Amino acid sequence: MTTIALLTTALLFGGMLLYSFGFAAFLFSALPPETAGPTIRRAFPHFYLFVMAAAAAAAALLWPQDQVSAALMIFVALTTLPSRQLLMPPINRATDAGAKSQFKKFHGLSVVITLAHIGIVGLVLSRFL
């Protein structure tokens, strides 16, 4: 069970890094902004679902051996939901309205949350050592 918990946590960590620093950057460098923007917008709800599902699965797998790590993963899963449900709509509205200061505020908050999640999942990975 420990190996599956490790692999699930590593999948989440790698997936978050790849999406945040690879996929998004690639889209905006490879596609024109009018195509990249709507594409990333369509992908984000799926990214958040991935984070919630993988974090919840990792928490369930970790619980028997490490309740602290499991609690951290539950925290990641639960705090991803407001990012998806409460931050994404105003980010999209600000983009549509051309409200750059509003976009920067809400997008900046979502970036901070995602970076914190990556850090927490990295901490959980380090606890396997």
Helix and strand element order: HHHH
Annotation field: number of helices: 4
State the end-to-end CA separation: 16 Å
Low-confidence stretches: none
Mean pLDDT over all positions: 96
Rounded to the nearest angstrom, the radius of gyration is 16 Å
- Can you summarize the main beta sheet? none
Structural class determined from secondary elements:
mainly alpha
Shape: elongated
Helix content: over 70%
Number of strands: 0
Query: What is the beta-strand fraction?
Result: under 5%
Question: How would you describe this protein?
Answer:
This protein is mainly α and 129 residues long. 91% of the residues lie in helices and 0% in strands. It contains 4 helices and no strands. The chain has helices at 2-30, 33-62, 67-97, 100-126. α2 (33-62) packs antiparallel against α3 and α3 runs antiparallel to α4. The longest helix has 31 residues, at 67-97.
Concise summary:
By secondary structure, the chain is mainly α.
Fill in the keyword field for this structure.
4 helices, 129 residues, 91% helix, mainly alpha
Topology diagram in text:
Layout (H helix, E strand, L loop, with lengths): L1 H29 L2 H30 L4 H31 L2 H27 L3
